[in-house]
Amino acid sequence: MRRALSLHRPGDWPADRARASITLAWADRHRRRLAMTDDSGGEFLLDLPEASLLAEGCGLRLSDGEWIAVRAAPEAVVDIACHDAESLIRIAWHIGNRHAPVQILEGGGLRIQDDHVLVGMVEQLGGHIVRHRAAFHAEGGAYAAGEHHHA
């Protein structure tokens, strides 16, 4: 079986040489060792030295020298906006207090995975929501050294 032995961040690998891609939802993109199937049905073993975030645009280097591009799958998300920064900060605090992953959007909004309990809370706090399908790229957190990425 083919083995993916190293992960390379966007811009640190020859993306034009990718022979395959793998499209994963947020919950499936933090891995170390797992049998996986690329988007064209090819099987490989993810065999990294440590658990890593497989972020959009990363490349997996296979033992045979081939590359697999990592893609973020569209999933059910909720974009959050507020009329003022204070309200948005309050909502961000409440989301963080529940240890829910959150993505900070360019332009000042937030994105969370679609969860009816969190959405209800956000609406009660005055947030305006838009439900749709998009890639989710949560913040890595204070202790996720080197794993701060944005789309």
UniProtKB/TrEMBL annotation:
One of its GO terms (cellular component) is cytoplasm. Residues 3-68 form the UreE urease accessory N-terminal domain. Its main location: cytoplasm. InterPro entries: UreE (IPR012406), UreE_C_dom (IPR007864), UreE_N (IPR004029), UreE_N_sf (IPR036118). It is found in: Cytoplasm. Keywords: Chaperone, Cytoplasm, Nickel. GO terms for biological process: protein folding; protein-containing complex assembly; urea metabolic process. GO terms for molecular function: nickel cation binding; unfolded protein binding. HAMAP family: UreE. Involved in urease metallocenter assembly. Binds nickel. Probably functions as a nickel donor during metallocenter assembly. This is Urease accessory protein UreE. It comes from Telmatospirillum siberiense. The gene is ureE.
